[in-house]
Amino acid sequence: MKPMMQAVTIRDEWHTVLAALSGVELLQSWEWGEFKSRHGWVPQRWTWKYEGEVLAAAQMLLRSETRFGLSASIAYVPRGPLLDWTDADLRRRVLHDLCSLACREGALFLKIDPHVAVGYGVTGSTEAQPVALGLNLADELASSGWRESRQQVQFRNTVVLDLAQDESVLLASFRQKTRYNVRLAMRKGVTVRAGTDSDIGLLFSLYARTAERDGFVIRPQKYYRDAWGSFMRNHMAEPLLAEVGSEVVAALILFTFGGRATYMYGMSSGSHSEKMPNYLLQWEAIRRAKTSGCSAYDFWGAPDQFVSGDPLWGVWRFKAGFRGQVVRTLGAWDYPCRRAGYWLYARAMPRWLATILSMGR
């Protein structure tokens, strides 16, 4: 069997392709590619079919940058490619085709970070379970010229909550302190409402305050107006705002695609924290995701190392209370098209390369 690789240029056809595959990812959606195209990336969409059956798909983003008289082009398949990774022949064919395509396009290297688990549960805990497929795939990539990336664009690990249970069962499954804080927020008068386009300026203001307080770098406001607004207009994102009285004290952007809800952006003013608004905000997001027909809620990010020194440790302690399943994934891998050039940019100019790659988020 040799599946044929074909380009897809029509939105509805692309989403039909994705619907035929399991494990659909938001970052492989047509809308994500269009959004990134307005910020320096060029999307290409490819599918692999055999006798009319869809076997795999990949949205590849291409970007070129020039600094100090030096140029670098990068090919990136965010949260992909999408395929049945247990099919060894298929995965080898798809990866071979993608590598060949990236090199023909003049890319310095191809980056992939598929949602393939190498383990579940917190490492070192009694719940930790290795996943042979992911571990074997890592060995296979390493022996085929791929290199585990020094620059992870998306979070390597995440926490996923199964929404198949009734609301009462879900709430009861949370840790006691989390349940208490959800109910405390209700008693203290915290309310949650859905936002609109008119709230985007306020959301960015909260996000900027959060970034300053927590010490992370964000982009200009116009980027988030596009990121949030375009998905809202396509009915793929909804802002939720927690209020105390008439004051907005916390918010999040809930993305939905392919039956999965994703909590990708969160923000707060820091005010009224004793009323626990973020707990109620998450609970309402989970409820809305379930009501909209989603089967899973992705908390979008968990520590690489589950130790107190990890940058995501504080965020993890909050997310852990909702008792989702920790998913440890393969992470990002690079295939160098030009080995000498890849070494130069990955070793000698890591900050520039990291800056380019961060634009893939």
Characterization of the model:
The protein is an alpha+beta fold. Helices cover about 35% and strands about 30% of the residues. It contains twelve helices and 17 strands. The strands form two sheets. Strands 8-7-16-10-15-14-13-12-11 form a nine-stranded mixed β-sheet, with helices on both faces. Strands 1, 2, 3, 4, 5, 6, 9 and 17 form an eight-stranded mixed β-sheet that branches. Helix 6 packs across helix 9. It is globular and about 60 Å long. About 40% of the residues are buried. The model has no long low-confidence stretch (mean pLDDT about 95).
Low-confidence stretches: none
Strand order of the largest sheet: 8-7-16-10-15-14-13-12-11
Distance between the termini: 35 Å
Helix content: 25-40%
- Beta fraction of the residues? 25-35%
Q: What quaternary form is this? A: single chain
- Major sheet: size, sense and barrel closure? 9 strands, mixed
Give the number of DSSP strands: 17
What are the secondary-structure elements, in order, as H or E? EHHEEEEHEEEHEEHHEHHEEEHEHEEHH
- The chain-level mean pLDDT equals 93
Category from helices, strands and their pairing: alpha+beta
Tertiary shape: globular
